[in-house]
Amino acid sequence: MESFESDGLFWLPDDEENRVAGRISFDPAKGTLLTLIGSFSETHFGEDLDDTINREAIHGVAGKRYLTLVNCRRVSGRFESPGFQREDYRAESLFAGMGLLDPNDLRFDQVTVEFNNLFDWMSQTAVSREYAVNDSSKKLERATLTLKTIPTEEISAEGFKLAITNSWKILGSKQNPGFEQDFSFRITYDHEVEYSKIKHDISSLQDLLTALTDSTASPTGIGLWVSDSDENEPKSRRVRVSAYGQQSTNPTATPKASHEMLLNYQQAGGLQALVRWLEFTRDRRVVLGLSLSSRYRQMYVENKFFNAVSAAETLHRMEFPNEVSPAAEYKNFRKMIVRYVPKKHRGWLSQQLAYSNEPRLRNRLRELAEFGQLSTIIGCEPKEWADMVTNSRNRMVHHDKGKGAGASSAELYWLSESLHLLVLACLMRFCNFKEGYLETMRNNDSVQFTAEQTQEIIAAAKSA
Length: 464
Description:
This protein is of the alpha+beta class. Helix content is about 40%, strand content about 30%. The longest helix has 22 residues, at about 410-430. The two termini are about 50 Å apart.
């Protein structure tokens, strides 16, 4: 998303006659800021200004577009000489297009989204170059730059269609001609859906690109489509709205080359894999959030490790049996044990045994490692690896005296990276990625380095 700034007029949806001049600005890192030269309130000079005013929505027109600002919070209000008032608002979301939106009915039936590293991940190009060199003089006689558009791919799923489209435009001048090309995702829903749901789908695609390219993905453009019904027109017309919002990510300055990525588009399995990823991760946002949090924001290595462990444990709780013995059988077993202690201790013992039928962390990790075939990726035996991660986690949590120092920061970092690879490998298997994805991941340079570091950590722990 590109930054912009523009002057315009703004008003509250239920008070269109009271239009106030102001300046709207957007920055991907800072979000949307509206500065009014005036006020929507009736505060008089000398009265205290309330900085806690929230506006559900603000409408406006600026830069030849209608604007709808949603969930606005007044961050400052002040009087300036010679006595006029200013107000500043921060908006959670900004929608710009050829019409105003109802903030209570933000529903759309189609979204297109571009990402900063999508073109590199696709590993396809519509441009080819040809050179003709004179055999005798060895001089260039002709150079041909050809653009052949890439057909749109689309696949239907339950409730939506997912497509990848290719776009291009001519750049430069007669002296310096050229092409610019890019790709975008397009999701067409069977019916209008809430914007909150669309944002979740965008986040899932963003997480997929971040995980597979091993570089932070950020949306560079979001287009929403909705029908604009008119009583005087028999057919409703389609209206495109651009969406803007503060980015919670720090984009990678230099995109990864295709050979540096874990998997590219074709290696992952194409649109089929993307559809399965969208469907599977819709109800598992917490797993992706925990696993990829350190990819989007810098954090202490201890937080990175705890998040990675939590991501693995949460995934296991959601997808694997959460009991060691059948619930009914264990309930009877627990009652039998409790009956053998004095009555005054039965309540306490029953509480202590309440969650004792759940798998322990090391067992969860070992089962995940076997399911995700972690040994194929980093060459570690599942039990040894699970013991190492669990012991490191327990030492950090319990701080047992007399057991020596726990894992170092470097060890926590590489164990976190191995946990990240495990969660990703499990998600890939759940989504039926293309056969051979494990071998492709294993041959990645960064994965091989992670494998070496993790193996050394486990070997050192065994020899200690």
